[in-house]
Each structure stands twice: as structure tokens, then as C-alpha cells.
């Protein structure tokens, strides 16, 4: 493998939607990241107080890891070949074989073990996705969707990253699409995906998901006023913002990416209502940014009084905005 | 967010890298823009890092006082808590907590020490002696 075809690297906002968009485009179906995110039903809101990571509840603005890979297969009828491994040596061998056949593949990795990440970002997070497109001088050539340039990684480092233990352990997870058509009728998949996301955001059976989840979180923020441990309060507010802005979300907790999807979907379907919904979703994203700013300020000022009700009300406004958007979307034809 | 509102705060925590944001261009069309980071991200990331650093310093003091093992110090230094450390090691939390006891730590097998050292990106000697500049 002395001459590897250069890979047209693009920087994406989110790792999983970025890898899927780049892989599909590479294998012949030109598709944008927002389209992948929207069609796979990637958007959600979830506040799960009884599952904790480093003592803080799960707060998520997107579906669980692998949901995009699964969703895109279901909606577009494209099959991905997926592998997990118990034996790192075998995982390495099969990766090398696939690359020598000219395949470009997606891998699940742990950011803790990726040397090209800034040190401050290397937390124990096991569901980061990247593309390996070749080998040169004994190193793997990597297109990491959230990095702004191509990178290389030594086999030993990649092995550590692919076989990290813990929650969402990758177990060497490798994937690539089989037989990708050069064009697919997107209309029906778009309609179905939007209706499904709207249904979940409006009518989730538990008050922890969708707009009800946002309101539950707002209530929790308001009650932080009586929390005895200031350190915990700051951690909690910082945690919300980290889940919303820090990890690659494209800004506003994926709301801007979803607005981009609605805009593109509106053109594909010729539906003015989607254009209107996209504008409203952008406003929701802007409001989420205002909310993040308020949380960060409260987090920074140690000891000064914090207006928790004002912060909670911003979250409630986000919920109201999103409720309006998804009411517009729930019955699109 | 409009493209001219894209934050360019050159935050230290991105280490000179950039990220992509979805923004509206002048014609109201969505596009991606590169950002050198938003101050808000830096505040919340520094907050969690400071929290871990404070816990690490506290642990270092207790290692010196013979109240805990260096594992607890390196755990916080690498931004983990007992549960994430246990999961990353493939152990139970109670085992990790037990390894915090200096007497237990002194009897740990070479293989176990190597596994901890590998996770913390240090060598075994460093793990045993806590010799390290913060």
C-alpha cells in the first residue's frame, strides 16, 4: 500500500453524522451532514436523573450512540456491514485487509486514547467516531470528522482507542456501507423521519423526553436554589452546557443542525411550512445559546447569588419554541 | 445564529484547533463556519477541570499523609472518578476503592500496577512514588 488515494477531508459538526455523511458520499451517494442527522432521527432531548455519569444525570440533545448508523439504514434502505471484535489482533488484521482492498471504514473509538486530541478534551468518552482511509509508513491515515485537517495515528494508539473499556465500550466496532446507490428518493424518508421526531418531542410517554423533558430539567434547575452544595450546583450547570455546546453539536445542542436539515428538506419536498419551521428552530437554537450563557455565568461567579428562576425560564422558553416547531411538523404531507 | 455572530474567542481548551458550527449566511442559507471556540465553552470546561484539579491536590496531600494511595491522585488527574476508573480498568468500584488503601496498594501485583500505569500514561515507578510535577 504505497500510494493511498488522498481523502477529501471535510470538517463536520458531529462525529457520528459526520462519519456517516462522509462514508455515504465517498461510496457514491452525495449527502449532507444535516440530511443524515435529520433522516436518521438524530434529534431529541433527554434528561435522565437516575442514570449518572461522574455523579451527574444524563442530559442529551441527541439520540444514543449508534442511533444515526441504525436510523440511516432503516430510512434509506442502505445496509452497513458492521463488526465488533474480541481479539484486538484480529481487529487490526481485518482493518489492514479492508484498507488494502481500497475500503474506507468508520470506527468507534475512545477520545481518551486519541493522541491528536487537545489534552483538555481527552475525557473517558467511548463513542467517538472517525474514518480510517489508508495506511502509510506503518501509521493509519485518519479523517476525523470534527478535526479541521487529516491526521495519522500509530497502530498501538488506535488499538487502545478501539478497545477501551467502560460504558459504551467500542469493542473494535467497525462499519462501512455496502452497495450504495448514487441516488435515492429522499421524499418519503424525510417525511417519515420528521413525523417520528415530532411525535417523540411532543408526546413521549415519560416527562423526561422531548419538550416535557426540557420542562422537567427547568424545574430541577429552579430547585437548585435550595441545594446545599455550591460545588455540585456549579458542576450541574456546567454539565448541561458541556452536553449542549462542548461536544460536537454544531451549536445550540444540535438545534442549528436540525434547522439546516429542515431548510434542505423544505427544498426537496417543496413545502413552505418546513422553511418556516427551520426559521423557528433557528430561534430555538439561539435561545439555547442564551440559556448556555446564563448557565456559564452562574457557574463562573462563585458565591454570588444566582437567579435560578431566570435560568429555568429560559429553558421553558426553549421548550415552548420547540413545541411550536414540532406542532407545525407533526402532520406534514 | 448568523455567520457574522460565529464566536471566535480563541479558547485555550481547543488547543489551537477549530470546530464547525451550523450558521445562516447573508442569504439566509445554512452553511458551516469554523469557530476558534466560544468563551462559554471555555468557562464550563475550565470549571470541571478546576474541580478535578482541586480533588487531585486534596488526594496528593492525603497520599503524603499516608491516608490514600497514588491511584486516587492519578485518577482525578486524568479526570476520572472511582466509577469511571473502575470501568476503564475492567474492575468493580469497590476493588478500586480498596486499592486506595495504602496497605493494599503496597501489595498490588506488578501486572495490576502496570495496568493502572498504562491507563494513566505513566510508568510503574511514577505510579508508586507520585514523583511528578503538576
Account of the protein in words:
The complex is a heterodimer of chains A (333) and B (134). Chain A has eleven helices and eight strands. By secondary structure, chain A is α+β, with helices and mostly antiparallel strands. In chain A, a hairpin with a 7-residue loop joins strand 6 (139-143) and strand 7 (151-153). The longest helix of chain A has 29 residues, at 272-300. Chain A is globular, with a radius of gyration of 21 Å. Chain B has two domains: 3-37, no CATH class; 41-129, 434 Repressor (Amino-terminal Domain) (Orthogonal Bundle). Chain B contains seven helices and two strands. In chain B, a hairpin with a 5-residue loop joins strand 1 and strand 2. Chain B is elongated, with a radius of gyration of 21 Å. The chains are: A alpha+beta (333), B mainly alpha (134). Chains A and B meet through helix 8, helix 9 and helix 10 of A and strand 1, strand 2, helix 1 and helix 3 of B.
What are the defining features of this structure?
heterodimer; A: 333 residues; Cathepsin B, Chain A; 2 domains; B: 134 residues; mainly alpha; 434 Repressor (Amino-terminal Domain); 7 helices; elongated
Overall strand count of chain B: 2
Mean pLDDT of chain B: 93
CATH class of the largest domain in chain A: Alpha Beta
What Rg of chain B, in angstroms, do the CA atoms define? 21 Å
> Spans of chain A with pLDDT under 50 lasting ≥5 residues?
none
Separation of the first and last Cα atoms of chain B: 39 Å
Per the CATH scheme, the topology name of the largest domain in chain B is 434 Repressor (Amino-terminal Domain)
N-C termini distance of chain A: 50 Å
Please trace the helix and strand order of chain A, writing H or E for each element.
Answer: HHEEHEHEEEEHEHHHHHH
Amino acid at each position: 500500500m504505497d500510494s493511498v488515494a488522498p481523502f477529501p477531508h471535510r470538517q463536520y459538526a458531529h462525529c457520528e453524522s459526520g462519519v456517516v455523511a462522509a462514508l455515504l458520499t465517498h461510496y457514491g451517494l452525495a449527502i449532507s451532514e444535516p440530511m443524515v442527522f435529520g433522516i436518521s432521527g438524530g434529534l431529541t432531548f433527554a434528561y435522565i436523573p437516575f442514570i449518572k455519569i461522574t455523579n451527574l444525570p444524563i442530559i442529551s440533545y441527541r439520540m444514543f450512540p449508534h442511533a444515526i448508523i441504525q436510523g440511516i439504514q432503516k430510512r434509506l434502505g442502505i445496509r452497513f456491514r458492521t463488526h465488533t471484535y474480541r481479539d484486538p489482533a484480529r481487529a487490526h488484521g481485518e482493518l489492514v485487509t479492508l484498507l488494502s482492498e481500497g475500503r474506507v471504514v468508520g470506527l468507534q473509538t475512545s477520545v481518551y486514547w486519541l493522541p491528536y486530541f487537545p489534552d483538555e478534551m481527552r475525557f473517558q468518552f467511548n463513542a467517538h467516531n472517525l474514518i480510517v482511509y489508508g495506511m502509510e509508513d506503518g501509521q493509519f491515515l485518519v479523517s476525523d470528522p470534527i478535526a479541521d485537517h487529516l491526521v495519522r495515528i500509530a497502530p498501538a494508539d488506535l488499538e487502545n482507542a478501539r478497545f477501551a473499556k467502560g460504558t459504551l465500550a467500542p469493542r473494535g466496532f467497525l462499519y462501512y456501507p455496502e452497495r450504495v446507490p448514487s441516488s435515492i428518493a429522499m421524499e418519503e424518508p424525510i417525511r417519515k423521519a420528521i413525523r417520528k421526531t415530532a411525535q417523540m418531542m411532543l408526546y413521549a410517554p415519560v416527562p423526561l423526553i422531548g419538550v416535557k423533558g426540557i420542562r422537567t430539567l427547568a424545574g430541577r434547575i429552579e430547585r437548585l436554589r435550595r441545594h446545599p452544595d455550591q460545588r455540585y450546583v456549579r458542576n450541574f450547570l456546567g454539565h448541561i452546557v458541556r452536553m449542549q455546546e462542548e461536544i460536537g453539536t454544531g451549536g445550540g445542542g444540535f438545534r442549528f443542525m436540525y434547522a439546516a436539515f429542515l431548510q434542505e428538506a423544505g427544498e426537496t419536498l417543496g413545502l413552505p411550512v418546513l422553511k418556516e419551521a427551520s426559521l423557528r428552530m433557528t430561534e430555538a437554537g439561539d435561545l439555547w445559546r442564551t440559556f448556555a450563557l446564563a448557565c456559564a455565568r452562574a457557574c463562573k461567579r462563585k458565591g454570588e447569588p444566582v437567579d435560578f428562576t431566570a435560568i429555568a425560564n429560559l429553558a421553558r422558553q426553549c421548550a415552548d419554541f420547540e413545541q411550536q416547531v414540532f406542532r407545525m411538523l407533526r402532520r406534514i404531507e | 445564529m448568523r455567520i457574522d455572530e460565529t464566536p471566535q474567542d480563541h479558547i485555550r481548551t481547543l488547543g489551537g484547533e477549530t470546530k464547525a458550527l451550523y450558521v445562516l449566511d447573508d442569504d439566509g442559507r445554512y452553511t458551516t463556519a469554523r469557530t476558534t471556540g466560544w468563551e462559554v465553552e471555555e468557562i464550563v470546561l475550565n470549571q470541571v477541570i478546576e474541580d478535578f484539579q482541586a480533588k487531585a491536590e486534596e488526594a496528593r496531600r492525603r497520599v503524603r499523609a499516608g491516608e490514600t494511595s497514588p491511584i486516587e491522585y492519578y485518577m482525578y488527574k486524568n479526570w476520572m472518578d472511582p466509577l469511571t476508573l473502575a470501568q476503564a480498568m475492567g474492575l468493580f468500584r469497590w476493588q478500586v476503592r480498596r486499592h486506595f488503601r495504602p496497605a493494599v496498594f503496597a501489595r498490588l501485583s506488578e501486572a495490576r500496577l502496570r495496568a493502572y500505569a498504562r491507563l494513566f500514561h505513566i510508568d510503574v515507578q511514577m505510579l508508586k512514588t507520585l514523583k511528578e510535577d503538576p
